[in-house]
Amino acid sequence: MGAWTWPAYIGVLFGTLLFAGLLIPLTIWQSRRYGRLSVRRFLGAAAVAVYGVSLAAYTLLPIPSGDLARWCAEYGVDGAQTHLLQFVDDIRRDTAGLGLRATVLHTTVLQVVLNVALFVPWGVLWRRFLGRGILTATLSGLLVSLAIETTQYTGIFGLVGCSYRVGDVDDLLTNTVGAFLGAVLAPLLLHWMPQSRDLARERGLPRPVRARRRWGSMLLDALLFSGLAALGSLAWRLGLAVTGRELGDPTWGEWLAGSAVPFLLVFVLPVLGSGASLGQRALWLVPVRDGARPSFGRRAVRSFLPGGLWGVLLVLPALPDDPHLPGWVATAPFELVAALLAIVSVLGVLTTKDHRSLSGSIAGVTYVDARSR
Questions:
Q1: Nearest-CA neighbor of 357 among 297, 313, 365?
Q2: pLDDT 10s digits, 30-42
Q3: What is the pTM of this model?
């Protein structure tokens, strides 16, 4: 893998993972900000994640490790390159006597081109995705480039112990030029990207309740429950590690943090409000009975059947080993039943009136757009 290509692989891999990790908050933010979801804005967010990680990989990696004092003695960089336009003299010197093709493909020339190209996406995304102007795109590119060069020159602000890359004023110049060019070309390169302010104008418009919207709310609820469960367990174990306690088998404390609390937040708390789940709220859905807020009993039924039951089936297998628990708790196929229940609920969106699925049909409620009330 070439020295100029491996950072791109790093950017695509970890940028995609970063985007996946932010998908839930991005979905909720888009829905509440725009009143609907925009696939093209999702693509833009993915591009930002991949580009951001790629930029860090190209400019800061690899970071020295191991015996840093020895590394600095052997490979550390002294000083910085402060002669503006030094790259012009370098190109003249390194390409003297070469033909046009050899000159264009020379490493010294390509290095300058790469430094410009590296910040073109910055200008493009700043102007068309964030909706800012050419001036701020250029200035922000300058500031980010300055931060990168400073980080390189100071050895990550003293963590490495020496400059592990050359702090170069020409890099600052070429990066800024790249950001400017990207901002100028942005309307041409990213003309298909809808602007956030334009989408936000339609935020208050009610929209039909379709199957994909109901599925989206179900998926959000499932991901929120799973995500909160993972965060709860992680927080509990981090607390044990920080306090110097042994990390052993799951305990009742971890079960409360990683199972019971997420269950209460996702399946119990919504009953006290409109009756809409967190996922439904995010996508502007609300249950109604004869056009009005359902009774407490109907809200409870809507939340617990089948959503809450699905959550219970996932919470029970996570119970810690305890001799006081019935033996069937450890052997019952809870996960299988939960999977079957989820499949029935998903299919029920297509087979029930107004896409009520099981929850709406059992509780006797209909889902409408919250903005239509």
A1: 365
A2: 999 999 999 999 9
A3: 0.86
